[in-house]
Design a protein that fits this description.
The protein is α+β, with helices and mostly antiparallel strands and 182 residues long. Helix content is 26%, strand content 29%. It has 5 helices and 12 strands. The strands form 4 sheets. The chain has a 6-stranded antiparallel beta sheet, with helices on both faces. Strands 1-4 form a two-stranded parallel sheet. A two-stranded antiparallel ribbon has the order 2-3. The longest helix is centred in the N-terminal third of the chain and has 12 residues.
C-alpha cells in the first residue's frame, strides 16, 4: 500500500473519525472493505467510470483512484455495526450543533477553501458525474462565531477557516457530512 499521503482525503478523514472514538479499524481494512467501482475509461469518445455516490471510484492505492462520497463510507461502517449517520443536506449551523455536543463531523469542502474547480467529468450510464479537482474531506472538531476548526488529512494540524467561506464551499459541494452517533 502507498503511504497515507497519497490516499484520498475522504478515506483519511473517515479513518480519523473512526479513531476519534478509538475504534480499531485499520486503514488496510478500510481500503479493502470500501466498495470499489471502475477507474475512468474511454468508450466511443466518452469517459466512463464508477459512481462516487455508490463506490470508491478507481483504486484507492494508486493514481487511478479519485475518491468517494459519504454513502459508501456509511455502508462500510454499517458492516462493522457502527452507527454512522449520513447528515448530508443539513446546514452548516445544524452540523455545528453536532460539533457543539462533542461529535466530530466529516464534511466535504475544497483544499484551503479554494473556489471549487470541476474540470473532471465522466458518465455512469447516461448520468454525468462532475468531480471537483480540489475537493477535500475534513473533520470539523470545533468552531467559533467567526471560524471553523478542522482536522486536515495528511497532517496532524488543526486548521482554522473563516466560517462564512467554509459554509459557502460546503454548500456548493452539496452539504455532505457524516458522523458517528454517540
Amino acid at each position: 500500500m502507498n503511504d497515507d499521503t497519497t490516499l484520498d482525503s475522504s478515506l483519511l478523514s473517515f479513518y480519523r473519525l473512526l479513531h476519534f472514538y478509538h475504534l480499531d479499524i485499520s486503514m488496510d481494512t478500510l481500503i479493502t472493505g470500501i466498495k470499489k467501482g471502475s477507474s475512468l475509461f474511454l468508450d466511443h469518445h466518452r469517459l466512463y467510470g464508477g459512481d462516487p455516490e455508490v463506490e470508491y471510484v478507481g483504486n484507492p492505492k494508486d493514481s487511478s483512484g479519485y475518491g468517494v462520497y459519504q454513502k459508501p463510507l456509511v455502508e462500510f461502517a454499517q458492516s462493522f455495526d457502527l452507527d454512522v449517520l449520513d447528515y448530508t443536506g443539513h446546514s452548516l449551523d445544524e452540523v455545528l450543533q453536532q460539533v457543539k455536543s462533542g461529535i466530530p463531523v466529516q464534511t466535504w469542502v475544497t483544499k484551503d477553501l479554494e473556489t471549487p474547480i470541476s474540470n473532471y467529468s465522466w458518465y455512469v450510464f447516461d448520468r454525468r458525474i462532475d468531480w471537483y479537482e480540489n475537493m477535500q474531506s475534513v473533520v470539523i472538531v470545533g468552531y467559533s462565531s467567526e471560524n471553523v476548526y478542522v482536522s486536515v488529512p495528511n497532517s496532524s494540524e488543526i486548521k482554522e477557516y473563516q466560517r462564512n467561506r467554509f459554509e459557502e464551499v460546503f454548500d456548493i459541494l452539496g452539504k455532505r457530512s457524516i458522523f458517528l452517533k454517540k
